[in-house]
Amino acid sequence: MARAVVVGAGIGGLTAAVALQQRGWDVTVFERASSLEPVGSGLAVAANALKALDTIGVGDEIRELSAIQGEAGVRRADGRWLMKTTEESTSARHGDSVVLLRRADLVDALSARLAPGTIRLNTTVTGVDPESGRVTVEAGRPRTQRADGPASGTETGAADGMAAGAEGVETGPADGAEGVEADLVVAADGIHSPIRAALFPGHPGPRYSGVTSWRVLIPGGGVPGQTFESWGDGKVFGVMPLAGGLAYCYATDTVPAGGGGGDQRAELLRLFGKWHTPIPALLAAASSENVLRNDVHHLATPLPAMHRGKVALLGDAAHAMTPNMGQGACQAIEDAVVLAHLAGEGAGLAGYTAARLERTAKIVTRSATICRTSQFRNPLAVRLRDMMMALTWRLAPGRMTGAMDEVLGWTPPTS
Predict the structure, then answer these.
(1) For 94-114, what is each residue's pLDDT tens digit?
(2) For the domain bounded by 3-52+104-205+299-372, which CATH number is listed?
(3) CA separation for the pair 51, 100 (Å, rounded)
(4) How far does CA 71 lie from the centroid of its chain?
(5) What ranges do the domains of the chain cover?
(6) What is the pLDDT of residues 55-65, one digit of tens each?
(7) Helix or strand (DSSP H, E) at 382
(8) For residue 412, is the peptide bond before it cis, meaning its omega torsion is within 30 degrees of 0?
């Protein structure tokens, strides 16, 4: 039986583990954190990622756990709609809707499909040989979970994550290093991937996008069936109603990297407390300890390849992007099912790079362009941007949905 090692138990790594196990691989997932507890974050799973999840039997469960996006669009800070679409039009055009759920729910659904003992927590990969596939790990040392930005990696926090004793999960063994031989190593170790840095030492690595983000889950908030982003002068505030009466709120501001500290709920109220309803009420209902703040980085320069030797890079480790298109986790899911389909076949990992590199690079670039547009602060530039968005919607309403055809119209490979 072929053996695969997955480094990182985020959404991309878990999807890859499930897909590989279903194809007969012996899979081990190494996760440096002591528990799998994605906290404070929601997730939009678009049509392309739902199709990928369908190939591993998870799609329908995610649809049942989720809220439907419903009416969605972009608004001004005063609440006026600039662009708007509906779940019906999106579904009719792309064969599926966008569903909204807690990131923890997707992690739970994926990990539950893994064989017992597949995930080894509290275990840090300290070295990978791409030629032999040998992985060196140190286990039994507690690790702090780090939030690598929206839709990337394992997040920190408390209260709404998966229990460490869930199916497919075990705590790492006693302290000490060990070596594991693998036919395939999947580097799903996040935006600051040590494996990527070792494989491609000449690559410049992540670049600050110019914005800092906040994320928070709020009970009993939002407008059911209405998902929106509101744009102001260099700032964005988004609201996604989730199942069970939760609202996922996220925000960005154009500020220098390295800020933070203090009461971040108070900072959000300072920045957005006078924006349109229901934003002030949502922030008033938020708990300060549940607000996550992260500088947003992305891989502005594409990698020369998404593999080297027996190592395949996946998700943020391969193509970290700004959150503006909602495709970070979706592209990691695509990566995972394509990799499982091609690994061990004729073209192998070279086929994986050929299938994924150009597509993901385009989405990274496009998302970064939208991010830069959201950073306009000059009042004239902001007015012109908003006017162009509103005119585009009134004169050619199909363009908002149609612009995503290439992304959402993707279909997974079939045997």
Answers:
(1) 778 889 999 999 999 999 999
(2) 3.50.50.60
(3) 15
(4) 22
(5) 3-52+104-205+299-372
(6) 999 999 999 99
(7) helix 379-395
(8) no
